[in-house]
Automatic annotation (TrEMBL), chain A:
<feature type="domain" description="ABC transmembrane type-1">
    <location>
        <begin position="86"/>
        <end position="302"/>
    </location>
</feature>
<dbReference type="GO" id="GO:0055085">
    <property type="term" value="P:transmembrane transport"/>
</dbReference>
<feature type="transmembrane region" description="Helical">
    <location>
        <begin position="233"/>
        <end position="256"/>
    </location>
</feature>
<protein>
    <submittedName>
        <fullName>Raffinose/stachyose/melibiose transport system permease protein</fullName>
    </submittedName>
</protein>
<keyword id="KW-0813">Transport</keyword>
<keyword id="KW-1003">Cell membrane</keyword>
<feature type="transmembrane region" description="Helical">
    <location>
        <begin position="25"/>
        <end position="47"/>
    </location>
</feature>
<feature type="transmembrane region" description="Helical">
    <location>
        <begin position="173"/>
        <end position="196"/>
    </location>
</feature>
<dbReference type="InterPro" id="IPR035906">
    <property type="entry name" value="MetI-like_sf"/>
</dbReference>
UniProtKB/TrEMBL annotation, chain B:
<dbReference type="InterPro" id="IPR000515">
    <property type="entry name" value="MetI-like"/>
</dbReference>
<protein>
    <submittedName>
        <fullName>Raffinose/stachyose/melibiose transport system permease protein</fullName>
    </submittedName>
</protein>
<keyword id="KW-0812">Transmembrane</keyword>
<dbReference type="GO" id="GO:0005886">
    <property type="term" value="C:plasma membrane"/>
</dbReference>
<dbReference type="GO" id="GO:0055085">
    <property type="term" value="P:transmembrane transport"/>
</dbReference>
<comment type="similarity">
    <text>Belongs to the binding-protein-dependent transport system permease family.</text>
</comment>
<feature type="transmembrane region" description="Helical">
    <location>
        <begin position="245"/>
        <end position="266"/>
    </location>
</feature>
<keyword id="KW-1003">Cell membrane</keyword>
<dbReference type="Pfam" id="PF00528">
    <property type="entry name" value="BPD_transp_1"/>
</dbReference>
């Protein structure tokens, strides 16, 4: 507290510069700490990982064997699990593009009117998004518990006993069940983005459309949707980016199982690198994720760099 | 005619309200499940089911989970990490955002895109080299190993938000300080930062939550119990007590109460920050 008072009392003008920094260098000096940090702990490891991906290496021993593109070829031609993981990522991402996005848009449209308790609803639908995904995964694993979990208990209570399922231990249901958890925890993101987007659309457009005799659907089609074009880019890009990065939920809920049926690239890379000590192969898997995400993110990054 | 329209609108609003109400009850079910499972004895839970009210409230579960799960270690670590990471990261992000927003220089556009691209970099692509690096630096397995990657992965978003905010601050204020003889550094420290407190505070809240929740980097870089953060510790706890449902749910509740409290009390700042720059204002 005393420091702040002292600082405020001392007039800015009195402080004299002892030495001059050439004006042209100043922006770069401001940028230096962030750039060096980012280069050392994000860019460098990334390039190092690219380098490692061309080797056969356990990640520990000093000897590395250069294998060229073999790791990448194995991902697509030899390793069935890697291809399953890629397919699971694609399914997950397609689901993420449609379901949470659609729910988020509908919720935003419903909450954008001055409805009673809309702030409370917004809080409720967004709240799962602030939880650690490990906790989310464990909560839902308990809900999916075959004997005592809420899901099966409810199904039995409403006479749908035959729908009761092992969920996370079931080969066909494990991934969809995990994805339902994803919807629960992530619907808040598209919702708040669409709410912000809706609020930026001028009321005058709606008034003009109404005067011209547009009905509710036409107003949505010709005013709301074009007004949300920018928001769509953000929301859909984030859905794809996060769809390929998915790790926490799968790791905590199914650990890639049963069998390897719910492996995604993110978890398979983790298992290969840190459990089976195939650092070279794991790095190649990581780079497949990175390459997909970086390419898909181009319109998003361009959108963010404007304005 | 008019009353018809009004009546239809009221009907529409009622239907939407009831739909939202039903959906929000579904959305709250997982929270209710955790609470109803955490505050009773295991026998009571298994015999009478999650949806029944507990016979007797077992507050002791929380104390037991806290001590058997070693949550005091994990809480201390997560809080220490937040204290190290959040101010450092946001300060160097602010330093970088300042020239990107307010100064003209060569390559400013390219440098900005260089940082923005980090928004799309998956953590996985840095993990193995980071582990090697931390071993070489002798800080693998310590909390300090998490600070470098956490700060690095936080920078893109923080620089993006702060640059956007700084641009809204009138350049005349900086010009006035410069005319008074202030250096660029003083203008940044005494004019820009004080005027940006709302944005800085928002980023702090978002960053505190993100740091509290981060799992994958902590999982890879830390294996020693003494250095575990809350998510890694919680998963460990689950591994050891996976069939003690009431204890496990008490542990989960303990580890999510801080983020829920922060969210409920500070959500106004939080949500605005997340969508910052996403929409033309």
């Amino acid at each position: 507290m005393s420091e702040i008072t002292l600082g405020a009392r001392r007039p800015v003008i009195v402080r004299r510069r002892r030495w001059r920094i050439p004006g042209a260098a100043i922006p770069y000096l401001f940028l230096a700490p962030a750039t060096l940090w980012y280069a050392a702990f994000l860019v460098y490891p990334m390039l190092q990982s690219l380098y490692v991906s061309f080797f056969d290496w356990d990640g520990l021993s000093p000897s590395m064997t250069f294998v060229g593109l073999e790791n990448y070829i194995n991902i697509f031609a030899v390793d069935d699990v890697a291809r399953l993981a890629l397919w699971n990522n694609i399914l997950w991402t397609l689901g993420a593009l449609v379901l949470p996005t659609l729910f988020g848009l509908l919720l935003a449209l419903a909450l954008n009117r001055r409805a009673p308790a809309s702030t409370l609803f917004r809080t409720i639908f967004y709240s799962p998004a602030v939880l650690p995904l490990v906790a989310v995964g464990l909560i839902w694993a308990w809900m999916y518990n075959p004997h005592f979990g809420v899901v099966n208990v409810t199904l039995k209570a409403v006479g749908l006993r035959s729908w009761a399922n092992g969920w996370l231990s079931d080969y066909t249901m494990a991934l969809p069940a995990t994805f339902v958890t994803f919807i629960w925890s992530h619907v808040g993101f598209p919702m708040i983005f669409y709410l912000a987007g809706l609020q930026a659309i001028s009321k005058e457009y709606y008034e003009a459309a109404t005067i011209d005799g547009a009905n509710a659907f036409q107003r949505f089609r010709h005013v709301t949707m074009p007004g949300l074009a920018e928001t769509h880019v953000i929301v859909l890009s984030l859905a794809v980016i996060n769809g390929f990065k998915v790790f926490d939920l799968v790791y905590t809920m199914t650990y890639g199982g049963p069998g390897r049926s719910t492996q995604v690239l993110g978890t398979w890379m983790y298992f290969q690198t840190f459990q089976y000590y195939h650092a070279g192969y794991g790095s190649a898997l990581a780079w497949v994720i990175a390459a997909i995400v970086l390419v898909i993110a181009i319109p998003y990054i361009r959108r963010m760099s404007r304005g | 005619m008019m009353s018809d329209v009004r009546r239809q609108r009221r009907l529409e609003q009622t239907v939407i309200f009831l739909g939202l109400l039903a959906l929000s009850l579904i959305w709250l079910t997982p929270f209710a499940t955790v609470v109803l499972s955490a505050i009773r004895g295991q026998g009571d839970l298994l015999a009478r089911g999650v949806f029944s009210l507990p016979k007797k409230i077992a507050w002791g579960n929380f104390a037991e989970a806290w001590s058997t799960g070693d949550f005091s270690i994990y809480f201390r670590n997560s809080l220490l990490l937040i204290a190290m990471k959040v101010p450092l990261g946001i300060f160097i992000a602010a330093l970088a955002a300042y020239p990107l927003a307010k100064l003209r220089f060569r390559f400013s556009g390219a440098i900005f895109i260089f940082f923005l691209a980090g928004l799309a970099v998956p953590v996985q692509v840095t993990l193995q080299p980071l582990l090697v690096m931390m071993k070489q630096l002798g800080i693998a397995n310590s909390l300090f190993a998490l600070v470098p990657p956490y700060v690095a992965f936080g920078l893109p978003f923080q620089i993006f938000v702060l640059r956007g905010f700084f641009r809204l601050i009138p350049s005349e204020l900086l010009e006035a300080a410069r005319l008074d003889g202030a250096s660029e550094w003083t203008a940044f420290l005494r004019v820009m930062l004080p005027l940006s407190v709302p944005a800085l505070a928002t980023l702090c809240i978002i960053d505190v939550l993100a740091t509290w929740n981060e799992f994958l980097i902590a999982l890879v870089l830390i294996s020693a119990k003494e250095s575990r953060t809350v998510p890694v510790g919680l998963l460990q706890f689950q591994g050891e007590y996976s069939s003690q449902y009431t204890l496990l749910m008490a542990g989960i509740l303990i580890s999510i109460v801080p983020v829920i409290a922060i969210f409920i009390f500070l959500q106004r700042y939080f949500v605005a920050g997340l969508t910052a720059g996403a929409v033309k204002g």
